[in-house]
Design a protein that fits this description.
There is one protein chain. This protein folds into two domains: 326 residues, Alpha-Beta Barrel (TIM Barrel); 92 residues, Golgi alpha-mannosidase II (Immunoglobulin-like), CATH 2.60.40.1180. 26% of the residues lie in helices and 24% in strands. It is built from twelve helices and 22 strands. The strands form six sheets. A six-stranded parallel beta sheet has the order 10-9-8-5-4-14. A six-stranded antiparallel beta sheet has the order 15-16-17-22-19-20, covered by helices on one side. Strands 1-2-3 form a three-stranded antiparallel beta sheet, with no helix packed on it. Helix 2 packs parallel to helix 3 and helix 4 packs parallel to helix 5.
């Protein structure tokens, strides 16, 4: 079985044969719960075409996943003494809920996609603002994790993503520890494990010392408190953990800004790109895209969900995000490191210039397309080929050969909020 692992440098993910794995995921939280097989096939086919490598989906879904049936009228758990029982998955008859989950995971594999599988959404163990019901404790969490681990131990295209948008108090931590223990025992350690935290938090806030966590994630979220400064969260995580990290839920395309549709502003493709390029150039091992109408698999457009999921499937942000993966894989992958000193920094809101270099190349990202000065003497080279990379189209256009000996000012082709540019500097022999 092909396996994912953490690269020996502790910063990136790779396949066991050493091939890089750039985690580029879409949040498809309601995939198993709301879509039928034909719809799932359409969704997965499009995401594979767009360059995604993973989808994040939930077994016990957020939208009343225990009490409202899936597309085939099936529920995931049986009831014991009137309560939904994680130790009693409903496997009776044809087209059980879990048959459908199996089918979709296998369909993802056929499209070359990894499924980051959340065993449950967080409201099933820490209700807070959700609908629940809470059904987990430490013991049935272990049993459920063991069952899941055994069921999916031989699927190559799986990552376990614990959590589900909830903080962990002491009792919740014990529960997650036990679920992870069950999964590890059941799947024989065949799959990586991570954790999806609540908004504005990171998995390092709750599980920094958890030995079962293979890579960490943050949720920078959908308001303004973190969205323009997600790179700071990424950098902080890189400083406080010795494991790969990424943003598992940044601003979603078509999401009402700050959760308030009355503002009349929904996050746009450039907002999505800003988060993605900031994070990856700060050293993240990948990134997660999301569309507000896709994660929910929305069927009726309105103020809060402005499109149906089918309409949103090919929106610009989803079509553009794959260029970031192709860019990272176009040059020596594992040698890349952030290099803040490469550029004269702009600390203004939305102005952060992300920069880094790898063996034979360097990147500098200008989110607003504004001119900047670069310290080219930091690059070990005599001459550099300079090219502009357009995040909207994926086009790379050389424009100069320069000496790598002194500060140099660069002026991107265009400027404005939707006019971000990435400077590529390739070392010439």
């Amino acid at each position: 079985m092909r396996k994912l692992s953490v690269h020996k440098d502790g910063r990136f993910l790779c396949w066991e044969d050493g091939e890089p794995f750039f985690y580029l995921a879409d949040t498809a939280w309601e995939l198993f719960h709301r879509l039928d097989r034909e719809e799932a096939a359409l969704y997965l086919r499009e995401r594979a075409r767009q360059g995604f490598t993973a989808v994040q989906a939930v077994a016990l879904a957020e939208f009343e996943g225990l009490t409202v049936p899936n597309a085939y009228g099936r529920l995931p758990l049986k009831q014991t003494a009137g309560d939904y029982d994680p130790c009693a998955p409903d496997l009776d008859g044809e087209y059980s809920y879990w048959d459908h989950v199996d089918y979709v995971i296998d369909l993802a594999a056929q499209n070359g996609l990894v499924v980051a599988l959340l065993p449950t959404w967080g409201d099933k163990f820490n209700r807070l603002w959700g609908k629940g019901p809470e059904v987990f404790n430490a013991e049935n969490a272990y049993a459920y994790g063991l069952w899941l681990g055994k069921r999916y131990r031989d699927r190559w295209n799986l990552i376990w993503m614990l959590g589900g948008d909830r903080p962990l108090e002491e009792a919740h931590r014990r529960l997650i520890d036990r679920m992870a223990e069950g999964i590890r025992e059941g799947d024989h350690g065949n799959h990586l494990i991570t954790f999806h935290p609540p908004g504005g938090r990171a998995s390092t806030d709750f599980l920094a010392d958890a030995p079962y966590i293979d890579f960490h994630t943050a949720q920078t979220g959908h308001d303004t408190s973190k969205c323009y400064e997600s790179y700071l969260e990424m950098r902080r995580m890189g400083q406080t953990c010795e494991k790969p990290f990424l943003d598992s839920e940044p601003r979603y395309e078509d999401h009402p800004a700050c959760f308030n549709a009355s503002y009349g502003f929904y996050w746009r493709p450039e907002d999505v790109r800003h988060n993605a390029y900031w994070d990856v150039l700060e050293g993240a091992c990948g990134h997660t895209y999301g569309n507000h109408c896709i994660w929910s698999m929305n069927r009726q457009a309105g103020d809060y969900f402005p499109y149906t999921w089918r309409e949103a499937l090919t929106h610009p942000g989803a079509e553009q995000i794959g260029w970031l993966r192709r860019l990272r894989l176009s040059r020596d992958y594992f040698s890349y490191r952030p290099d803040e000193g490469l550029v004269r920094q702009d600390d203004a809101l939305m102005g952060h210039l992300a920069a880094g270099q790898g063996k034979g190349y360097a990147y500098i990202y200008s989110p607003l397309g504004l001119p900047f000065a670069a310290h080219l003497q930091r690059i070990p080279a005599k001459h550099l080929k300079a090219s502009w990379f357009d995040p909207r189209s994926g086009q790379e256009t050389p424009f100069a050969v320069l000496p790598a000996l002194r500060d140099t000012r660069f002026v991107p082709p265009t400027s404005g909020k939707d006019q971000d540019w990435l400077l590529i500097l390739d070392v010439l022999a």
